[in-house]
Amino acid sequence: MPAVHLTGRRLARTLSVLAALLLVSLVGATLVGPVPVSLPVALAGPGSPDYTILVHARVPRVLLAAIVGAALAGAGSVLQGLLGNPLADPHLLGVSAGAAVAGAIAMVAGADPVSAIVPAAAFAGALATVSFVYLVARTHGRASPHAILLVGVVCNALAAAIIMLVNAVASYTQAQGVLFWIMGSLSSESYGLVALAAIYVGVGAALLLRLAHALNLLATGEEGAATLGVDVERVRRAVFVFASLLVGAAVSMSGMINFVGLIVPHLLRLVVGPDQRVLLPASLLGGAVFLVWADAAARTVMAPTELPVGVVTALLGGPFFLFLLRRSLRGQR
């Protein structure tokens, strides 16, 4: 990776633009939905339908979308940087699927979806999966990008089979709840859930931001990074753990929402460059913006029918992934 000189002005300018875009998105998406809402009427006080819709339905949902989008895009950014693979994504590597399996098992076992048990289980599932993928794909001290991708595909298939098995032994009500959760949903009226998600994601993001410089050095090669004082194995383990924390929190709160961690970091890398000191915080903000509007589309495109937001991101991300894959294969010729 070419050396990139980071200046406070460059970082502030990039993040200011994205933060302003996020603020506009939060306000704009709150007003978008199958039922029109008048902001002046809603702000006049409780008692009106507009107030109920805005405060008890739209605002927590939009905030949750921003938090989940930030988590998935942030995890995608560091996984792509660590693995040196622009196709790395929590979904494609099987990390989201592993988190979903663990979360589904916890729910069927009786855990309350809004308790701390489901996020903890999802975190453990994400961490176990990403560790498994890396260890299986690693040969001769190195894990090639395509080997990681292939192992991730196998993990996704295994996870799908396990989820079907869990649904088969669950009650009808539990199976329906797990199925709806797996498809990806941000419908929430709980500010407590939003606060819990913000804590999980905030901690994981803060810990990853401290590793941004080490990730830049690792991008130059493990031997070079070690020469410059980077404890390669410690950094790798820390990135896997903290990225899994982000993915586990996102999946536990919203189910399977795919391709956010692929699309957002890749597009932002074209704009701000590969320096993780800029790219990671930019991905956190950009992922929030992306998922806020993807959820707004899910609520309105086929109104009054609501699409799972995971369907919207998959329809956008599938073709984007195929495009990147084709370009990667052409580059190898």
What is this structure's SSE topology?
Elements: H1 8-30, H2 39-43, H3 49-83, H4 95-108, H5 117-137, E1 138-139, E2 142-143, H6 145-169, H7 172-182, H8 191-209, H9 212-218, H10 222-227, H11 232-254, H12 260-272, H13 276-300, H14 309-331
Antiparallel strand pairs: 1-2
Account of the protein in words:
The chain has one domain (8-331): ABC transporter involved in vitamin B12 uptake, BtuC (Orthogonal Bundle), CATH 1.10.3470.10. The model has no long low-confidence stretch (mean pLDDT 84). The protein is built from 14 helices and two strands; from the N terminus they run αααααββααααααααα. The chain is globular, with a radius of gyration of 20 Å. The chain has a two-stranded antiparallel sheet. The two termini are 21 Å apart. With 333 residues, the chain is an all-alpha fold. The protein has helices spanning 8-30, 39-43, 49-83, 95-108, 117-137, 145-169, 172-182, 191-209, 212-218, 222-227, 232-254, 260-272, 276-300, 309-331, and strands spanning 138-139, 142-143.
Q: Let me know the average pLDDT.
A: 84
Strand line-up across the major sheet: 1-2
The CA-CA distance between the termini, in Å, is 21 Å
CATH architecture: Orthogonal Bundle
Which structural class do you get from the secondary structure elements?
mainly alpha
Total number of helices: 14
Overall outline: globular
Largest sheet: 2 strands, antiparallel
In the CATH hierarchy, what is the superfamily?
A: ABC transporter involved in vitamin B12 uptake, BtuC
CATH topology: ABC transporter involved in vitamin B12 uptake, BtuC
Order of helices and strands: HHHHHEEHHHHHHHHH
Tell me the β content: under 5%
Strand segment tally: 2
